[in-house]
Amino acid sequence: MTLTRSRTFAAALAAGALLLSGCAASAAPAEGSSTEPVSGGTLVHALPALDAGWQQQAANNWYKSQVWAQLVETLVYVDADGTVHPWLAESWEQSDDGLVYTFHLRDDVTFSDGTALTAETVARNLDVLGLGDVDQGIARSPMIPLEYVAAEAVDALTVEVTLSSPNGGFLPSLGFFAAGILGDATLDLPLEGQSDIANVVGTGPFVFESEEAERSIDLVRRDDYDWASDAFEHEGAAYLDGITFTVLSEDGARLGALESNQIDSLHYVQPSEEERLEADGWNVVHAPYFGTPINFVLRPETAILSDERVRQALQIGIDRQELVDTVYNAAWKPATSSIQQASPGWVDLSEQLAYDPDGAAHLLEDAGWEEGADGIREKDGERLVLPGYTSPNLNTTPQLLELIAQQLREIGVDLEITQTDASTYGEIFASAETPLIPTANTFLDPATLRQYWGVDATNQFKLTSDVLEPLLADVAQTTASTAERDEALRILQETTVSEAYTVPLVDNYQVYVTGEQVHGLTTNAVGRPYFYDTWKG
């Protein structure tokens, strides 16, 4: 399913002129005047942040991806149901052994600098994504399966890709927004040059016009664009004249700008505001996505979490329904597995994760952690204290951690909350000394879990053994929507929950708010918006 929702927006102001307090009085959205798409107008879309650095692998975050997806396109498009649609590749074949994919490219696509899309350029892109570019200082993309070997241009419009072993997630991985096809003019640049958004040459329906670094970016329509995927609703150029992405870091500032008609749309409001906005007539869209829920990834090889019983106690010592009721609202759901309910192959493990503070206390006692004078458990002179790091990528983590800390204190665990920012969070996450940290991940196919959890990949659990590798390989080497894939994914979910590699918390959504005056915003399987079909009227 392609999730297409109507959005309403108010009249736009230039991003640099937004001087907002976030305290504007609530206003009703403007009523739409058109029922058929019309061309024209600039959409002003507010984001919490826009970091520097636009080399493709570095554009892999929630905020920058919303800009990137308008500039750069992929070989395939994966809609919100997980269906893979042709895009820059109009068709493809897979060999019987699953090791070779042959892609046939459209013959009418050009890059924003006027050069034609060719098999040589696509093969070059795929090699950078799958292998990295050591000479340019560019790492491989974590979204491309590790089985990637090479791509070769067979003729002007045919590309052949070879894998070392079958990977059922390879094809959908090519639809990830950060697996885009860039022009040679971009790929020829070193890392520093590719990191400048002005140097991004793509095939998208919009092109870069200007920026105020880390504050705003202006895109304009590409009038000669005419090769949209069949997943979209129209052909030809985009309806909008342009898009302004503006940074309003405070939640209240974004909301105030929307309600006072200074912006057209926004990404993310506090969940406490969502029901009021809906009641006032604004369109609040919860875009589900394939991936992992908001969760604590645990590091079993850290001393304090080395005992499985301690990790299991954390799982059942948290009341997920209270998290939803207090921090979120009825549109949100407690997490029920190590992947989200929206994901293909999800298995309901809510019984194993059911809130049981008495059971959690018994597990901790069995592990040798005795209650201390202040209620915090101790063992061999050490207090059961864990760090509670906020995530700059998950806006609700401060409130979430406050409530979790209260719940865990009831079973004798002290969660010490520490604020992080984009730079410190990355360092803390990467350290194998960090016993637990909140995160949420997206994927277009569960085979990508190998990129997140595999020892030779991101290795979120910081394992030094290959205990999960056979299970991850079983998922990767089976085909989506088959009994074999479902069984492999069931075993992986049950193992990561029963052996407590993760503490699932809340299923995550990407939330966008608009009014009734803007229509046709589309989100894909990982909740990223595409503004190609969007129109104002």
TrEMBL record:
Q: Give residue ranges for domain Solute-binding protein family.
A: 83-439
Q: Which UniProt keywords apply?
A: Signal, Transport
Query: What residue stretch is flagged as signal peptide?
Result: 1-27
Asked whether the keyword Transport is assigned, the reply is yes
Q: Name one Pfam family in it.
A: SBP_bac_5
Question: Which InterPro entries does the entry mention?
Answer: Peptide/Ni-bd (IPR030678), SBP_5 (IPR039424), SBP_5_dom (IPR000914)
Per the record, the domain of life is: Bacteria
- What does the sequence similarity comment in the record state about its family? Belongs to the bacterial solute-binding protein 5 family.
What is this protein's record name? ABC transporter substrate-binding protein
- Upper taxonomic lineage: Bacteria, Bacillati, Actinomycetota, Actinomycetes, Micrococcales
